[in-house]
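Revision sheet: structure tokens.
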Amino acid sequence: MILAGGNDQIALMEEIRRYFKNEVEIILVDMSEKVRAIPYADKFLKISTMDKAAVLKAAREEKIDYILTACGDQPLSTMAYVATEMGLPTYLTEHDVRDLTNKRYMKEKMVQVGIPTAKHIYINKTWDGKLPDWEFPLVVKPVDSNGSKGVKKVFSQADLEKSLKEAFQYSLSGDVIIEEFKQGEELSVDVYVEGTTAKLLSITASKKIQENKDSFTIIQSYYPAPTDYKEEQVLEICQKIVNAWHLHDTPLLVQLIQNEDSYNVLEFSARMGGGSKYRLIQVLSGVDIMKVYVEMVMGQKPKVEPQKQYNNAIMSYVYCYPGIYESIVGLEELKEKGIILDYFIYRGSNSAIEKSNTSSDRVAGFLVVGASKDEVENKLEEANATLCVLNDKGEDIMRHDLFQRTF
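Predicted:
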């Protein structure tokens, strides 16, 4: 049973079929009948991945042998719950998932074990409105949302009150964090924990949509990061997380802010990054992390030997102006010409696009690699000039303005 039906889960299902030489039945669970992964499964069940009781009932009826998900936080809890209740193999317990995905428990433990993170407070709807002596901007986060939903940067008391209402809507538990905003470069660190040793796979920087002043919408993940970070310090922080959370044999994603010699952890999770990050990791390190993940959850002890593959790479995400998405034109042509290495479609035809504020608003992603910064920037420019996202009227609604030379 696979929880959630996005593009990353398609890659997971394809890897599972390879692992079992296609002698496997895959049941997909998702609350939406429009997810792209449905044709890749043998059976589809329309159930919310967060409805633990309903998923457990279905899992028992289907007599499943494994339950998995990839690249998302919220379904991890259901995965761990069902596996535990049914006595199935699982690499995470519910307690593990809570401490790895709920930002409240995560932050509490970080403070306890000395992992650097921003000053913060936890609140619920009974909060008295009192703040520590902090200066704006601040950051508001639901403790347990997914895909950056409800995460806002606030610049005033009025912004704070407005953003808190949205954050509470996305918080499953009803808890929200308010924390100091940390200036610096955001680094996304992908690690595989082999046994209990953190092995660094990639460190990429995240470019955000600049016009979204109050949100953190990623438009690109790129390598190398344009900052003089110290790899040994980053790896030391990752190993400290592994030790404190007693992690073993798992992917690990760590997001942090680096400013000169200061490193502050935003959050982390025992999973791969979303947004087709598994492919970027493979391109940068030579490690097929999706294959490693499947082998790991099947009880094997895979070993990884990261080796640098390219000097420069950019994973770019396509966002659009509001409209009804019908198709994207030019991706296959660009791949055949060698301008892009790979591409990923996240939306199905006839889907409504209302905004470009969160990762769920992406239409597609594409990966550009090269030997130099100029090479990948030139390829990106050609891709931007070629691609079109067509609406139901045949008009191009792609946000071409988002792809500009920035590093």
